[in-house]
């Protein structure tokens, strides 16, 4: 519990607000005494009763980084972040109570997070567009999204991607990142998230609102984001971050420093509570992956059925080991065993 408290205190304070701007992490070294993250521990007993859904898309292991657009470099998301620099005894006392509860109610808090963001990030617009004979398909080259799971503004972009039925390459950028944050600095000029690169247009951009509008303009066939998707982030977008106590924010101190040779593939939709827990683990391990969005009504359901024999998500495929798993608890166990520095 001490590790959990210190972890949360370092990433969360309910009283401090600042920008999503990170400092350099030169000299970072994994701790040999850290325990497994909360995601891998205990789960709520009602986890099998929550409805699940899912599906698939094409596979590409390489990535392409487009030249960033200069006009985006001086923009900044007005995104608050909770920091542990001035927590004090009150915050520590609160976390000492919260941490063990999170261990017991991991799925419960994820399910509450889903309710807080309902209906955004749950269904694909392709269902409503079917009568208009509009086909939503992936662009020739996958876009790259640099983000971290706990960020509400990154969540806004992922919700839009679910609605648009798009798959993207995700490069998790947790605090303490060994690789991906440096890539964002190199290609965008600063550490700010989310950061999107679209190699099909040569565009790169910060600012979640601008990214969502861009995605709908270029890949939504003229449609607008669903009502409230943009505005609601300021009101309920923080609820999953708070309820999950910052899961998917910090790099796990036993994560492997070397990335896998090929990207994992995750079949998911943004507001699924089980998929959220798996994405948090992928972020904390800084594992790049192909996100296959399969919201309700997605036209890719048959692809997931062909791959897994089921519509349920999450479903993960690891081309590095040939492993395919559809149960979130087994996925968590596999990820932390396979991609922990202790196994290298």
From TrEMBL:
Stretches of the chain forming a coiled coil according to its record: none
SUPFAM superfamilies referenced in this protein's UniProt entry, alphabetically: Thioredoxin-like
InterPro entries: GLR_AS, Glutathione_S-Trfase, Glutathione_S-Trfase_N, Thioredoxin-like_sf
Name of the encoding gene: LOC111287349
Residues of the GST N-terminal domain: 141-223, 262-343
Skewed-composition ranges (Basic and acidic residues): 69-79
Protein name, per record: Uncharacterized protein LOC111287349 isoform X1
GO annotation, cellular component aspect: chloroplast
Pfam families: GST_N_3
Region spans: Disordered: 68-89
């Amino acid at each position: 519990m001490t590790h959990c408290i210190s972890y949360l205190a370092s990433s969360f304070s309910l009283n401090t607000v600042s920008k999503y701007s990170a400092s350099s992490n030169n000299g970072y070294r994994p701790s040999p005494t850290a325990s497994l993250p909360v995601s891998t521990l205990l789960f709520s007993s009602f986890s099998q009763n929550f409805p699940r859904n899912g599906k698939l898309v094409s596979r590409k292991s390489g990535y392409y980084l487009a030249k960033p657009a200069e006009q985006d470099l001086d923009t900044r998301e007005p995104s608050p972040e909770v920091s542990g620099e001035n927590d004090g005894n009150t915050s520590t006392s609160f976390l000492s109570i919260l941490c063990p509860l999170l261990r017991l109610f991991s799925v419960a808090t994820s399910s509450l997070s889903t309710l807080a963001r309902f209906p955004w990030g749950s269904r694909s617009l392709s269902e409503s567009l079917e009568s208009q004979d509009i086909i939503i398909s992936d662009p020739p080259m996958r876009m790259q999204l640099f983000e971290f799971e706990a960020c509400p503004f990154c969540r806004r972009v992922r919700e839009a991607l679910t609605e648009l039925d798009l798959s993207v390459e995700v490069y998790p950028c947790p605090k303490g990142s060994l690789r991906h944050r440096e890539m964002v600095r190199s290609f965008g000029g600063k550490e700010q998230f989310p950061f999107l690169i679209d190699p099909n247009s040569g565009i790169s951009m910060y600012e979640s609102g601008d990214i969502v509008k861009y995605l709908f303009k270029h890949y939504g066939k003229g449609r607008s984001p669903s009502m409230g998707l943009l505005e609601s982030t300021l009101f309920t977008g923080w609820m999953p971050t708070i309820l999950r106590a910052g899961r998917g924010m910090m790099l796990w101190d036993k994560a492997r420093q070397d990335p896998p040779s090929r990207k994992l593939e995750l079949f998911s939709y943004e507001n699924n509570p089980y998929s959220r827990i798996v994405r948090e683990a992928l972020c904390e391990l800084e594992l790049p992956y192909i996100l296959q969005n399969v919201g309700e009504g997605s036209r890719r359901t048959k692809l997931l059925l062909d791959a897994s024999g089921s519509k349920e998500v999450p479903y993960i495929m690891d081309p590095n080991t040939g492993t395919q798993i559809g149960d979130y608890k087994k996925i968590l166990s596999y990820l932390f065993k396979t991609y922990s520095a202790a196994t290298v």
